[in-house]
Amino acid sequence: MDLPTKYIFVTGGVLSSLGKGLASAAIGALLESRGLTVTIQKLDPYINVDPGTMNPFQHGEVFVTDDGSETDLDLGHYERFTNAELSCDNNFTSGKIYHSVITKERRGDYLGGTVQVIPHITDEIINSIKLVAEGVDVVIVEIGGTIGDIESLPFLEAIRQCSTDLGKDNVIYIHLTYVPYIKTAGELKTKPTQHSVKELRGIGIQPDILLCRTDRYLSASIKAKIALFCNVSEDAVITAKDVKNIYEVPLVFHKEGLDNKIVELLNIWTRAPQLDKLKAFIKKSKSVKHSVTIAIVGKYVDLTESYKSLNEALYHGAIANDSKVNLIYIDSETINADSCASTLMEADGILVPGGFGKRGIEGKISAAQYARENKIPYFGICLGLHIAVIEFARNVILLQDANSEEFDQKTPYPVIYLMKEWFDAKTGTVQRRDDTSAKGATMRLGAYPCQIQKGTLAYQAYGVDQISERHRHRYELNNIYRDQLESHGAVIGGVSPDGELVEIMEIEDHPWFLGCQFHPEFKSRPMNPHPLFRDFIKAALLNSKS
Ligand code: GLN
Predict the structure, then answer these.
(1) Contact status, residue 445 vs residue 432, Cβ threshold 8 Å
(2) pLDDT, tens digit, 9 for 90 and up, residues 308-355
(3) Position 437 confidence tier, pLDDT thresholds 50, 70, 90
(4) What is the pLDDT of residues 162-191, one digit of tens each?
(5) Are 353 and 298 within 8 A, CB to CB?
(6) Helix or strand or coil: residue 249?
(7) 77 lines ligand 1 (CB under 6 A)
(8) Is 521 among the catalytic positions?
(9) Ligand 1 contacts CB of residue 506 (under 6 A)
(10) Which superfamily, per CATH, for 288-542?
(11) CA 314 / ligand 1 centre spacing (Å)
């Protein structure tokens, strides 16, 4: 198809948490199902250059792409819903935009000029949007925040200009709003939507399509009212009804005619959408025969957004095993060796996810010990691998007070340590770091290859011996202890191609005990579940008490 790239800008109004990220991902899925190639970009108004240094309690999970970018969790939705290959160019923040403009200013690129929000910041934003357009039919751009926020104004101004810059026929604006049902009045209320669209039009953006988040289907008369007041056509008012399963969103949108409207407005000809696989997945998810309970022993348990990809990966793994999954989140600060048995009684499998810092570490070590000794399936991810190694060193090899240098710099047995110098195969350079290194973007980040040893749980899961998985950590297993670990019954299941970095550790004589240095959850998809999650759930099901 020889068409210019088309652009869809997605904004949100009324309040946050309406699911703009999911909506953007679902639009991507629908367009792909019609044979189009898409990419999705997130523009975030905050000043952090990336979310890598942000506390998961505040911002939820940090999603990592293959190229090692630490991004907003919405990119996780985009990848789970579409085939788009995302990189650092798919997430821009105000901080990243300003950083680039200020760097140019210092270099003298604008010599003589006054550097201003309009046009310099807005031009930088427009150029960032164009960066991802290469080779795709449609670029979907989601603007973070809610209309009315001061900090998103430069982004909104930039996307307003896009209509002229990229051509009116190539650009549409989709606005996600809220239509609440007011019980006492027994009615759906359209006023918040009207106000939000008024605000958007005040900035110069007339939305083409409204996605109305609501708990019930909008009647034709409500749609007509919204259409009249917001100056859109009636068939462009789409019910974005609450759903139980997020993967149903594209199907609900399709039923409401969203993809038809988009291709009509953008004037693209496509085949009819092919949604059979997704429909089959939803059907399967509604008729699962089994049930499994997984305990997640972590630190960020109060905000489950912190474990977004993890929760999804467990769900995908469960569906693959014809099962539903109940997740119990356990604050590791509240458990110890004595309370594990009662707290973890219900758990068919125990998972220790990624994390940073010392708080709650001993509780996680107790959970790993409990899983090892009682032969309960254990899955340790990144920090969860470190925990498994520390526990094994302390209680099996009997290295008293063994620890990670992250938690105890003076430990007599630093089984996990900060590799001061290592060869980074990805960049072909020797990386150096110590305790004083900057915290932003200085970890081992992104996709690294790993060689799987035959005869291991990992090999059983992957079925191949060469894999690539995404990383986000500073500390590594200390090679000095490798022989001791192995002679006491630990199995090194995977290493970097040069053999220097341990990527997977398992233990013998246990139904399923595996720790990995990488984050497999980032690569799991609903219809292509990650093999480690699939096998962990399978083992937990075999151990199931129910
Ligand atoms: N805190 C550990 C490290 O930096 C583990 C990080 C993680 O779990 N993502 O190495």
Answers:
(1) no
(2) 999 999 999 999 999 999 999 999 999 999 999 999 999 999 999 999
(3) low
(4) 999 999 999 999 999 999 999 999 999 999
(5) yes
(6) helix
(7) no
(8) yes
(9) no
(10) Class I glutamine amidotransferase (GATase) domain (3.40.50.880)
(11) 20
* 519 catalytic residue (yes or no): yes
492-529 pLDDT, tens digit per residue, is 999 999 999 999 999 999 999 999 999 999 999 999 99
For ligand 1, is residue 156 a contact (CB within 6 Å)? no
| CATH 3.40.50.300 placement within the chain | 6-281
Separation of CA 378 and ligand 1 centre (Å): 18
- CA 199 to CA 94: how far, in whole Å? 21
The CATH 3.40.50.880 portion of the chain extends over 288-542
pTM over 0.90? The answer is yes
Confidence of residue 18 (pLDDT cuts 50, 70, 90): confident
Verify whether ligand 1 is closer than 6 Å to residue 475 (CB atom): yes
What residue ranges in 73-169 does DSSP mark as E strands?
Answer: 91-93, 138-143
Structure tokens at 339: 């309370």
Q: Is the pLDDT of residue 370 over 70?
A: yes
Closest to 503 (Cα-Cα) out of 459, 440, 537: 459
Q: Is 213 helix (H, G, I), strand (E, B) or coil?
A: strand
- Ligand 1, pocket-test mutation among 474, 501, 516, most atoms within 8 A of CB: 474
Summarize the confidence of residues 59-75 as an average pLDDT. 91
Ligand 1 pocket check: which of 386, 404, 501, 518 to mutate, most ligand atoms within 8 Å of Cβ? 386
User: Which single residue is written with the structure tokens 């060193």?
Assistant: 393
Residues in Cβ contact with 151 at an 8 Å cutoff, skipping those fewer than 6 apart: 45, 46, 94, 145
340 assigned to active site: no
* Superfamily (CATH H level) for 6-281: P-loop containing nucleotide triphosphate hydrolases (3.40.50.300)
More confident residue, 385 or 438: 385
The helices-and-strands tally (H runs, E runs) of the chain is 18, 25
Is residue 39 scored above 70 in pLDDT? yes
- Residue 14 banded pLDDT, cuts 50, 70, 90: confident
| 178 pocket-lining for ligand 1 (C-beta < 6 Å) | no
- Ligand 1 centroid distance, CA of 126 (Å): 35
* Ligand 1 atom, smallest distance to 356 CA: 1
- For residue 124 and ligand 1, the question of a CB distance below 6 A is answered with no
From the CB of 472, is ligand 1 less than 6 Å away? yes
